[in-house]
Design brief:
Strand content: under 5%
Number of helices: 2
Shape: rod-shaped
Number of strands: 0
Distance between the termini: 122 Å
Helix content: over 70%
Largest sheet: none
Length: 85
């Protein structure tokens, strides 16, 4: 009986040990790490481009507002000129 119990304990220890080794951390391959670095770089570049484009949008909105105000002013001048004739 002790022999069977010892074999069962030994087998369970062996199965547990193999399970822990199989579930341990794995290191990524160099190719995977290079791809990850490339993706990270592309992400940073895209974020910078987004900030740049958002800045351009704000400047264009300001320019649009200024031009709309200029249009209103020119329309007022046109009306004054029409009344003066």
């Amino acid at each position: 009986m002790k022999k069977i119990l010892a074999i069962i304990i030994l087998l369970s220890f062996l199965i547990t040990f193999i399970g822990f080794i199989g579930c341990g951390p794995k290191s990524a391959s160099k190719e995977t790490m290079d791809q990850l670095e490339e993706a990270k770089s592309a992400c940073e570049s895209a974020k910078a481009e987004v900030k740049n484009l958002e800045s351009q949008i704000e400047e264009l909105k300001k320019e649009k507002t200024a031009k709309e105000a200029k249009i209103v002013e020119l329309e007022k001048q046109l009306e004054e000129l029409k009344r003066g004739k």
